Amino acid sequence: MRLWTLLFAMPLAAATHTIVAESYFHSFSAAHPVLLRVRPGDTIVTKTVDSAGFDFANIRRTKTHGNPLTGPFYIEGAEPGDAIAVRIVSLQTNRRHGYTGRAVGVRELPAALEAPMPDPDAVVKGYSYLVPWVIDPATRTAYPKNSPAGLRFPLRPMLGCIGVAPKGDYSPRSGPAGYWGGNLDYNRVRPGATVLLPVHHAGGLLFFGDGHALQGDGEAIGSGVETSLDVTVTVGLVKQAGLTAPRMETAGEIIAIGAKPDGNLNETLSLALTDMLSWLTAGYGLAPGDAHLLIGAAAQLDILTLGGSTAVRIPRATLPKKQNAKLPD
């Protein structure tokens, strides 16, 4: 059994906390007041607002656009050098509408390939370029409201933003991503995944938000299907993990994430590959040469956003079975 799994099931009775925030934040900052204190092993049941601040009842809870965050959550016992393990238990859409951008982020397209502007009535005041979507809970699908082709897609809710307060007084807005997590927009941050985040302040100070009803790889049109979500997560704690970047685990894979504000894909892929090499050598006992060969033979590479974040995935079936891997790595 993995170390972080043990810490999800600590001897103290785990509790479930249900809370809905009254205030939301646009930055990952240690200066924000704590929303809730929890123990490792506890479960948090809460809600997020959409990227413009609208909640499940379509009431705007923030004055400005830009990925409002729910939190921060203080995890008792978390200290700098530790890692928080956030298991995504459930993500559920809680209203019948959302919106996306309208065009892929490719410059100088031929005129025939340019996306038309949507209907003039704005989905969000001041953002007339957004495309309205319908979310159908009965069929678990979502579709553009006015698609001539009748496009329709299965719901696959995910969290666009998840992270902790970064080092010192650094307080990045909820737009970029980096070593603290942030606006990863990774469509695998969904139920069944555990996100591992390095701790830089007492309590870790966990934030999340920017819910998407679904999103393709790369967030190619600048958004997922933006909406509000009902969120259930369970938090764990890994002492002295020494992580330097976000990681993820699923039942079938381990995942290293490369993110850097204003980084390009080459830079962030280098970060993710380097962190995966560290994980395979320190965590799984592979010699550096074998770790390189394993990545070369089995790694799957993801573009998280056209803005520059990437990930490296390794199937568990390819990992050494005799090793009892631990974190960090």
What distinguishing features does this structure have?
single chain, 329 residues, mainly beta, nine-stranded mixed sheet, six-stranded mixed sheet, 3 helices, 19 strands, 30% strand, disordered C terminus
Summarize the structure.
With 329 residues, this protein is mostly beta strands.
Distance between the termini: 16 Å
Q: Strand pairing plus helix content: what structural class?
A: mainly beta
In which range does the helix fraction lie?
Answer: 10-25%
Mean pLDDT: 93
Folded structure, characterized:
The protein is globular, with a radius of gyration of 20 Å. 11% of the residues lie in helices and 30% in strands. It is built from three helices and 19 strands. The protein has a nine-stranded mixed sheet. Strands 2-4-14-10-12-11 form a six-stranded mixed sheet, with no helix packed on it. A four-stranded antiparallel sheet has the order 6-7-8-9, with no helix packed on it. β11 and β12 form a beta hairpin. The C terminus is likely disordered. With 329 residues, the protein is mainly beta.
Topology, element by element:
Elements (H helix, E strand, L loop, with lengths): L2 H6 L7 E3 L17 E3 L4 E6 L20 E7 L7 E11 L3 E4 L30 E6 L4 E4 L8 E2 L3 E7 L12 E2 L2 E2 L11 E5 L7 E7 L16 E10 L8 E3 L3 E6 L6 H19 L4 H11 L1 E4 L6 E6 L14
Parallel strand pairs: 1-3, 2-4
Antiparallel strand pairs: 3-15, 4-14, 5-13, 5-15, 6-7, 7-8, 8-9, 10-12, 10-14, 11-12, 13-16, 16-17, 17-19, 18-19
Helix pairs in contact: 2-3
